[in-house]
């Protein structure tokens, strides 16, 4: 007599970004608005010019996981422009890296099962690696290069800004992004968890 097979979570990781264009536009709009609010009104000043500790990149990383790289890149870019336009002034050398960060995290996490209620340790590690790489490329490399070449800023000033932004953003995004994704996954119905009784 054969024993019924027990469902496992070894199914291939789906590309969960296949959402309708309407959903993508809505996600971009809401994402840009929340990025703006978190950037402008939830900020802790630090003793480095034009920098503050903020939480919008944790939200942007979550957006990248749930909706993919392009939604995150556009939402982050637009939200950052809105925040800068009402604050320091538009600064493309930092708004472009925000879009790049969204792209990197989104592509790193293109395959996941968060919407299916699964966020295992391997995905947690992959997410944190994506965040660290994304912030390093954005702020540890790209931002200060663009500041010097595009905006004519002094190297010694922007290299400090870039490194501080990389460290603070990476820590905050890893911690809060991981918590948000873990909690969100728990609210979803896990694949194979519902069975019809015999």
Automatic annotation (TrEMBL):
Transmembrane segments: 22-43, 55-82, 88-112, 124-146, 158-184
UniProt-listed InterPro entries: ECF_substrate-spec-like (IPR009825), UPF0397 (IPR022914)
Signal peptide: none
UniProt keyword annotations, A-Z: Cell membrane, Membrane, Transmembrane, Transmembrane helix
HAMAP family: UPF0397 (MF_01572)
Name of the protein: ECF transporter S component
Species of the source: Dermabacter jinjuensis
């Amino acid at each position: 007599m054969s024993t019924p097979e027990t469902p496992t979570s070894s199914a291939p990781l789906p590309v969960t970004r296949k959402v309708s264009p309407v959903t993508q536009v809505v996600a971009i709009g809401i994402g840009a608005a929340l990025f703006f609010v978190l950037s402008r009104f939830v900020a802790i000043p630090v003793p480095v010019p034009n920098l503050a500790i903020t939480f919008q990149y944790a939200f942007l990383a979550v957006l990248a996981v749930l909706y993919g790289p392009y939604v995150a890149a556009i939402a982050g870019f637009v939200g950052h422009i809105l925040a800068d336009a009402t604050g320091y002034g538009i600064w493309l050398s930092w708004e472009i890296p925000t879009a790049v960060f969204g792209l990197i995290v989104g592509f790193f996490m293109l395959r996941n099962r968060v919407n299916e209620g699964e966020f295992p340790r391997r995905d947690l590690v992959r997410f944190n690696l994506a965040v660290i790489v994304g912030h390093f490329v954005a702020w540890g490399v790209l931002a200060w290069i663009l500041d010097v070449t595009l905006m004519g800023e002094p190297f010694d000033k922007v290299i400090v800004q870039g490194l501080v932004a990389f460290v603070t953003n990476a820590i905050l995004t890893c911690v809060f992004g991981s918590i948000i994704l873990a909690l969100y996954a728990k609210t979803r119905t896990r694949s194979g968890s519902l069975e019809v009784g015999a």
